[in-house]
Automatic annotation (TrEMBL):
Lineage start: Bacteria, Bacillati, Actinomycetota, Actinomycetes, Streptosporangiales
Assigned keywords, A-Z: Gluconate utilization, NADP, Oxidoreductase, Pentose shunt
Pathways per UniProt: Carbohydrate degradation; pentose phosphate pathway; D-ribulose 5-phosphate from D-glucose 6-phosphate (oxidative stage): step 3/3
Protein name (record): 6-phosphogluconate dehydrogenase, decarboxylating
Pfam families documented for this protein: 6PGD, NAD_binding_2
Entry annotated with the keyword Amino-acid biosynthesis: no
GO molecular function: phosphogluconate dehydrogenase (decarboxylating) activity
Record domain 6-phosphogluconate dehydrogenase C-terminal: where: 181-471
Organism: Nocardiopsis changdeensis
Enzyme class of the recorded protein, top EC level: oxidoreductase
InterPro entries named among the record's database cross-references: 6-PGluconate_DH-like_C_sf, 6PGD_dom2, 6PGDH_C, 6PGDH_Gnd/GntZ, 6PGDH_NADP-bd, 6PGdom_BS, NAD(P)-bd_dom_sf, Pgluconate_DH
Length: 479
């Protein structure tokens, strides 16, 4: 067999198959391979007419089908399967070849794999791919890490298959070395968790306090989707809320068990943020809210606990309340993105990745699950000031959040008074107030730490490190 394929995809479950079709539909010859060969045959039988596929059954055949330097995309289940596939293919590759891992790998694994393969002269390109199966087929947002050299060889192909933002720019950029791409994908997913939680809280408030039914709430989300909240997640929220269960005739949302599942990227985001010391409280609350929902036994045991039962507002006040919820949702969303971008900046500094935050916002504008008009605004904020310390420091976001805050506070207050849980809205507001506070109780924390553990403290009026002799005459010593 001649080496005719410009790119190869191994792992032909839903994501790999659609990515392979996307490459083929864009004019590339694609070698395809899967551990279980039946999947490879099925792809070519069903979709062979869409472009040029080279079906291969063995690893040797697959590698031999690829032009050099080889570009080999791995779309298998993240974790051990990825290591197994690398162990199988790496010995067949030559220096200069590229392995692109498009799975949801943990960035620390990507760093390890990149290091090991670099020693053998092979480029390992840990790549975030977002947009689910539909995105993989019609244009995902793509977040490749790895060497600049590998991006030269891969970038043009990725730009062809990526989603396009409204201004036509492809939603792909070279994010940075080794684990940078998978890190950014992880934070993308963390922000996705936060967005979904905030939308869920808005839904619950409209249901319990505005007194709207799901169909009416769907209309509210549709209206919001024509404004500054215009986004894929708001759009699909309206679709899900207006869906009626065929079996019962009830709103679909009322026949689904209220226990949210998770695959782990949200949890990784929070774990990593803890290690980096970055307060991603919005994402953390979203992950915890999913965990809380899943504890069915605990919830059943707690159901009778005392507390208010939300009373719907009189109908004439419901609409104004819905408008206030929109303000609270928008302000909280600004905070989650602020936190997510802080985490990316912190990791970039820690690992020396040199990530361009503006470029990340740019490639999230299309293809991915969190795509939104809002990301144009973030892109503009970073373009105006590439060194922006925090999104909240952007004048336009600061103005908007300033305008939203009275409503935001009143929505959180009312939710608390009525017993509707809003951990995302409340955590975002607490972050905002924490950041703008002149003084925090951290001074007292330092005093307590010094009292029980002689951990020392710094003073506001002098340089140096101090300790008070709490058990003695309470004089202060330096050092
Ligand atoms: P899965 O995550 O379900 O993985 C199935 C694929 O992995 C099959 O091709 C399977 O081969 C292969 N595989 C396994 Br499992 N163990 C293997 C091994 N030891 N050696 C070789 N191949 C092995 O597929 P997916 O849902 O298409 O996702 C692929 C990747 O993309 C994952 O990392 C996922 O996290 C990521 N991702 C998914 C989405 C999404 O929306 N689904 C979005 C973004 C990213 P077989 O056919 O022989 O069993």
């Amino acid at each position: 067999m001649g080496s005719t394929a410009q790119i190869g995809v191994t792992g032909l479950a839903v994501m790999g198959r659609n990515l392979a079709r996307n490459f083929a539909r864009n004019g590339y010859t694609v070698a395809v391979h899967n551990r279980t060969a039946a999947r490879t045959r099925a792809l070519v039988e069903e979709f062979g007419g869409e472009g040029d596929f080279v079906a291969t059954e063995t690893a040797e055949e697959f590698v031999a089908a690829l032009e050099r330097p080889r570009r080999l995309v791995v779309m298998v289940k993240a974790g051990e399967p990825t290591d197994a596939v690398i162990a199988e293919f790496a010995p067949l590759l030559e220096p200069g070849d590229m392995i692109v891992d498009g799975g949801n790998a943990h960035f620390a694994d990507t760093r390890r794999r990149e290091r090991e393969l670099r020693e053998r002269g092979i480029h390992f390109v840990g790549t975030g791919v977002s947009g689910g199966e539909e995105g993989a087929l019609n244009g995902p947002s793509i977040m490749p890490g790895g060497s600049a050299e590998s991006y030269e060889a891969l970038g043009p192909m990725l730009e062809r298959i990526a989603a396009r933002a409204d201004d036509g720019a492809p939603c792909v950029t070279h994010v940075g070395p080794d684990g940078a791409g998978h890190f950014v994908k992880m934070v993308h997913n963390g922000i996705e968790y936060a967005d979904m939680q905030l939308i869920g809280e808005a839904y619950q408030l409209l249901r319990d306090i505005a007194g709207y039914d799901p169909a009416r709430i769907a209309d509210v989300f549709r209206r919001w989707n024509t404004g500054r909240l215009d986004s894929y997640l708001i759009e699909i929220t309206a679709e899900v809320l207006s869906h009626v269960d065929a079996a019962t005739g009830k709103p679909f949302v009322d026949v689904v068990q209220d226990r949210a599942e998770q695959k782990g990227t949200g949890r990784w985001t929070v774990q990593t943020a803890l290690d980096l010391g970055v307060p991603v409280s919005g994402i953390a609350e979203a992950v915890f809210a999913r965990s809380l929902s899943g504890h069915a036994d605990l919830r059943a045991a707690s159901r009778g606990l005392p507390g208010p039962t939300a009373r719907p507002l009189p109908p004439e006040r419901a609409e104004a309340f819905a408008d206030r919820v929109e303000q609270a949702l928008y302000a909280s969303k600004i905070v989650s993105y602020t936190q997510g971008f802080h985490q990316i900046a912190a990791a970039s500094a820690e690992y020396g990745w040199g990530i361009d935050a503006g470029a990340v916002a740019r490639i999230w504008r299309g293809g991915c699950i969190i795509r939104a008009a809002f990301l144009d605004r973030i892109t503009a904020a970073y373009e105006a000031d590439p060194g922006l310390v925090s999104l909240l420091s952007d004048a336009e976001f600061a103005r908007e959040i300033g305008r939203a805050q009275d409503d935001w506070r009143s929505v959180v207050s009312l939710a608390v008074a009525e017993g509707v849980p809003v951990p995302g809205f409340a955590a975002a507001l607490a972050y905002y107030d924490g950041m703008r506070a002149d003084r925090l109780p951290a001074a007292l924390t330092q005093g307590q730490r010094d009292y029980f553990g002689a951990h020392t403290y710094r003073r506001t009026d002098r340089e140096g490190v101090f300790h008070t002799l709490w058990g003695g005459d309470r004089s202060e010593i330096e050092g």
